Automatic annotation (TrEMBL), chains A, B:
Residues 264-347 form the ACT domain. Substrate binds at T47, E74. ATP binds at K7, F8, G9, G10, T173, D174, Y179, R184. This is Aspartokinase. One of its GO terms (biological process) is threonine biosynthetic process. It comes from Cohnella lupini.
Length: 417, 417
């Protein structure tokens, strides 16, 4: 008998019919003899509808009240899913985040889970119930309702799995696993049977939307076995765990591309000690995430830098630079859009020299020039012009021997919450 | 500086525009220097929409899960109302039932409030906030979410007013007070300035939908000053309190009529001791509320009874009678519909003989025969044929000197939750 956490996203429970299908799927698991805790997101467009309602009344609502509002979405889901299970003749009990013992930091809109007291969950399981927990929400020590922000339901599922020491945490979504690259771009993308936390983390950060990075971090930290699988098929999914099995000859596990990237260039900066610290300290102080940083050579005591930020932060990054110009003199600051960051990820590359070189070769092979490069132990990223990205990803996929004929991809927009 | 509870029903906050109007009204109160606790129902049709969603999935959902589902309606209201107040530049905090310290019995769908711990409400008031509490809901000692059933938000408001020792509990609704009778029936119905708890209780039970009887009971028990007034006008409402001021010569305060009545007749019952106890004990055991009971004379050792029940309970009441026929033999049981119960209510009738006689006279004056009569200290009810009820109510209204030219009635469907 296993203890299993099953997480279903909003599109999986978007209609009464889908809700019933999910209920049956949960019951099947229970009938196998497993103890089941289910985590659910808000149905379909519920969250967007609530946000719209709020904006009708206040275009800048307090985040405390937004949390109060939005958490009703998941509360509706858990109640209805429990009703669907009862209708099919099985016992279920739904719980809000606070009822499930999920304690968070004293922050609204993007709280982190600080503790889970699973006594009530265990008591309910012991009574033979299927336990259904509202994702995305928790309560502070002071009894305030909070939400976990983007990817929050994934995080709830993983944190709950860690707290109850579940054998596995299954994330049901509308794709049937983690792919070597986006199957909408590369037809012969292969579904991975296993992937390590670190690899998944890189892929998640690099724009593979199936799992939220925070949930993966949590899984890594608590060593939770994560499975990503389809809520529409019975196909085996992808297992995310500490030491993923290495397939013969596979050095690169996956290829990701991220269009949400703008390059800021700072030209003619006085080459003095502490300049970099001042520039990037100021960006960090303003909450701007800087990704790749490149410094070109120094000429005549002046240096050129460039760095990437998300598109949304572009103007703010420039404003921050303008604000420190008196302190850090430079000639000019510019930005460039229409870029894409292409990355190869794989734990195998640590011990395989020449992996980066092969990447540069493949990219130049399709006539594209590389604007920036960044490397880590298990990742190489190149910033290139966005236009030929599909061709580049396909070339890399082939170059690293990832192509396969087995294309079991189930399409549809991906489910992030 | 007064401490005031303001309760707004679902239709008062049914749209963003109405929500804003209510927000302004609350702020006006606060600007007078009062400390304000607001209780709100679910917006407009929210509750019906949620019930429909549930029924799509399960036509007989567990009441625990219905409570989980329906309480989201009020949670949405309080969050949005708080946002509306913030938008107008004032501080507000919304609270669910459990956050507001409302503890109920361990019963779903119609729990009674067993305790309120108002510490958090006081702390929030002390911080200068307008406090907004979700009506209709609470939590059991064991942390289960419950609802209070029909009229629940009125009850929340009154119970909260009792717990925080508020100076007054104002119930805002879509009529501007309690009327001597339904102003849609009798054009010259008069708005009452004051009414006693007992009178209000009788009127509420008799179908005057403005206040729920349970809320009135609660107000009487804790001696809460209740005011019923319009959320759309600034007219003074009706004050409900222990000893209402007697207007000169007014013996009867109000006239109510209730069409939700069926008469069951049991004919040829063996006249033995304990027969009545058996018949009505069996009805009570089956959860059937019996209202008026009349026993006509005994002839040849056989008695005839008749009693009234609500229309919905009619068939079940007959089934219960059929079930005990072996134990309590009778010749025949029949029922009659198309009836109405007309009642006059007034604390003044205790000391005024002839009040009932005047009622019978007025009814027979319009050519209507009386089928059943029931009296209490402050009430006389007659069951008559439903057809001429408007004429009867008008005649009674005139007979007791209640007519007035001042018809300030604001129409619209009444708000019960």
């Amino acid at each position: 008998m296993s203890l299993i956490v099953m997480k279903f996203g909003g599109s999986s429970v978007g209609t009464a019919e889908r809700m019933n299908r999910v209920a049956q799927r949960i019951i099947d698991k229970k009938l196998q003899g497993d103890r089941v805790v289910v985590v659910v997101s808000a149905m379909g467009d519920t969250t967007d509808d609530l946000i719209e309602k709020a904006n009708e009344i206040n275009d800048n609502p307090p985040s405390r009240e937004m949390d109060m509002l939005l958490t009703t979405g998941e509360q509706i889901s858990v109640a209805l899913l429990s009703m669907a299970i009862h209708k099919l003749g099985h016992e279920a009990r739904s719980y809000t985040g606070w009822q499930a013992g999920i304690v968070t930091e004293e922050v609204h809109a993007k709280a982190r889970i600080s503790d889970i007291s699973p006594d009530r969950i265990f008591a309910s399981l012991d009574q033979g119930n299927i336990v259904i927990v509202a994702g995305f929400q928790g309560m502070t020590e002071g009894g305030e309702i909070t939400t976990l922000g983007r990817g929050g339901s994934d995080t709830t599922a993983v944190a709950m799995a860690a707290a109850i020491k579940a054998d596995v945490c299954e994330i049901y979504t509308d794709v049937d696993g983690i792919y070597s690259t986006d199957p909408r771009v590369v037809k012969c993308a292969r579904k991975l049977n296993e992937i390590s936390y670190d690899e998944m983390l890189e892929l998640a950060h690099l724009g593979a939307a199936v799992l939220h990075p925070r949930a993966v971090e949590y899984a890594k930290h608590y060593n939770v076995n994560l499975v990503v699988r389809s809520s529409f098929t019975n196909n085996e999914g992808t297992l995310v765990r500490e030491a993923a099995e290495m397939e013969q000859g596979v050095v690169v596990r996956g290829i990701a591309s991220d269009k949400n990237v703008a390059r800021i260039s700072v030209l003619g900066v006085e080459d003095q000690p502490g300049v970099l610290a001042k520039i990037f300290g100021a960006q960090a102080d303003n909450g701007i995430d800087v990704d790749i940083i490149v410094q070109s050579g120094v000429q005549g005591g002046k240096a050129d830098f460039s760095f990437t930020v998300s598109l949304a932060d572009r103007q703010r990054a420039l404003d921050v630079l303008a604000g420190i110009k008196a302190e850090v003199p430079y000639r000019e600051a510019t930005y460039e859009e229409g870029l894409v960051k292409v990355s190869i990820v794989g734990a195998g590359m640590v011990s395989n020299p020449g992996v980066a070189a092969k990447m540069f070769e493949a990219i130049s092979g399709v006539g594209v020039s590389i604007k920036m490069v960044s490397t880590s132990e298990i990742k190489v990223s190149c910033v290139i012009s966005a236009e030929p990205v599909q061709e580049v990803v396909r070339a890399l996929h082939t170059a690293y021997g990832l192509d396969t004929a087995d294309t079991a991809y189930v399409g549809g927009p991906q489910d992030r919450r």
